[in-house]
Write a structure and sequence with these properties.
Blueprint lengths: L11 H8 L9 E7 L5 E8 L7 E10 L12 E3 L1 H10 L6 E3 L6 H13 L21
Parallel strand pairs: 1-4, 4-5
Antiparallel strand pairs: 1-2, 2-3
Length: 140
């Protein structure tokens, strides 16, 4: 802030998708899922779209849910993230998906998204960069 540098909020799920951007077709649906502990996954569904914010369009907004509930969203998709590493067999019980194991969000992929956002006119105002807290209940 003191250096007057832009600050952007970038989704970790979008960063996961960016990590496999060069390995997928533009029309592929990406289901990015992170193990959220407590028998849940943090996930969202994205599609490449160069005209959308950061180069990705949300098909399913980020949310936290139990792994079973993802079954209806994983047909004909590409999976990425630690949620797939832990619950991939649950997600894919009745679906045929390509899965990229061992992927984690990396800063370099976030920087690529940030560059696109700035080129698209994002101002990088610190007031706009807030964490997205998805889970309502943190106890079992």
């Amino acid at each position: 802030l003191a250096l007057n540098k832009p600050m952007l909020a970038i989704s970790s799920l979008m960063t996961l998708a960016e990590g496999i951007r060069d390995q997928i077709k533009p029309s592929d649906r990406i289901v990015a899922a992170i193990d959220a502990r407590m028998e849940q996954v943090y996930w969202g569904c994205l599609e490449r779209d160069d005209d959308a914010s950061g180069g990705w369009r949300w098909q399913e907004e980020p949310r936290v849910s139990d792994p079973e509930s993802l079954k209806e969203h994983v047909s004909d998709c590409v999976g990425v993230g630690s949620g797939w590493d832990r619950y991939g067999s649950v997600f894919q019980a009745d679906a045929d998906c390509v899965w990229h194991p061992g992927a984690f969000p990396q800063a370099g992929y976030g920087a690529r998204i940030a560059s696109r956002l700035l080129n698209q006119g994002a101002k990088g105002e610190w007031r706009e960069a807030a964490p997205a807290y998805i889970r309502n209940d943190v106890t079992n």
